[in-house]
Amino acid sequence: MNHSGCLHFRQPLKQERFLRSCCFFLSVYLLIIVSTVGLGGLLVVFVLKPQKPVFSIQTVRLDAYQLNVYSNTTLFVSAVASMVLNASNPNKIGLRYRPSRLQLYSEGLPMAVIRVPGFFQPAHSNNVSLTTRVLIPCVNVTQILGGAWLQDQQGHNIVPMKLSGDIRVNLHFTHITLPKIKVALDCDISFEYKELAFLNEAYIKKPPKDLL
């Protein structure tokens, strides 16, 4: 009877030691994973020295629009436009962007949705052209054209806007494709009035086209 009691007493001790061993090896495994990810991050930061990709607007073309006038004073426009961007990548790694949708805001109000297709930026590239679709559901043109414009140092009239959205990117280093990451985009941008010429064109032309 006494030996039986000792056996029952030793079994919980063995289970406790087994659980402690599992927790120890699990902790070591997690530590190795965290260390590997940390070393990979340090490698990217200190060796590759990543820089921000640069995007610039080449052309903005109005494809279709529809005008609506309310109370003979307020003009609203719904439009579809094509915007061609030039993308430059000064980094040592390639960047593959997944298709995404960005929101354009003016004075806190949604103005347009920009559909960005998937594309690839090779390392040290500066001549990648990208065509995006700009969807303007309903914008008060009268308010925009008659709003309080800001002026830059050259005296040009500009309008401040905010661009936001999520972008998914894969990093390509030599022949290795790193896991996909998600970047939250939230930046302030400014457009010169001449870059918004398609709104002025829609405002002046009388016979509106049908919106595609």
From TrEMBL:
What stretches pass through the bilayer?
Answer: 21-48, 68-88
A GO BP entry: defense response to other organism
Which residue range or ranges hold the Late embryogenesis abundant protein LEA-2 subgroup domain? Answer: 85-179
Annotated membrane topology? Single-pass membrane protein
Q: Which GO terms describe its cellular component?
A: plasma membrane
| Record has Transmembrane as a keyword | yes
Keywords in alphabetical order? Membrane, Transmembrane, Transmembrane helix
* Protein's cellular compartments: Membrane
What is the protein name for this chain?
Late embryogenesis abundant protein LEA-2 subgroup domain-containing protein
What organism does the UniProt record list as the source?
Gossypium laxum
